[in-house]
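From the methods appendix. Each design record in this collection lists the tokenized structure first, followed by the designed amino acid sequence. Records were kept in a plain field format so they could be parsed without special tools. The example shown here is representative of the layout used throughout.

RECORD:
FOLD TOKENS (115 positions):
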């Protein structure tokens, strides 16, 4: 039984962290981009425009870190994001781009192919 705050709790967390760390292969070099694949813009690289309030909240609040990771994973799963996706997400079109990511994730979860 899992009881928060006990020694067993700490052992479970330590074991999970050790397994996760071994699976991440942090010491390995990044895998090369496949030939012909377009390099994506980094989500956290600041655009030349002023960052929007929602994007600042997502990226600068520790409690929002899991949401930021989810946004990043879905962004990487997008088949072909347009060139202004990142700048839109960082500025005034945050809600629209977040909804686009949500739809992609929802459709993929249902087994619908998105291109």
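DESIGN:
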């Amino acid at each position: 039984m899992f009881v928060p705050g006990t020694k067993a709790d700490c052992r479970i967390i330590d074991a999970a962290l050790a397994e996760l760390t071994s699976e991440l292969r942090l010491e390995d070099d990044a895998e090369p981009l496949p030939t012909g694949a377009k390099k994506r813009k980094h989500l956290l690289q600041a655009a030349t425009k002023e960052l929007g309030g929602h994007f600042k909240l997502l990226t600068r609040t520790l409690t929002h870190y899991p949401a930021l990771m989810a946004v990043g994973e879905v962004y990487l799963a997008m088949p072909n994001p347009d060139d202004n996706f990142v700048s839109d997400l960082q500025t005034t079109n945050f809600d629209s781009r977040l909804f686009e990511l949500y739809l992609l994730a929802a459709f993929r979860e249902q087994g619908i192919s998105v291109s």
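APPENDIX NOTE: The chain has a mean pLDDT of 86.
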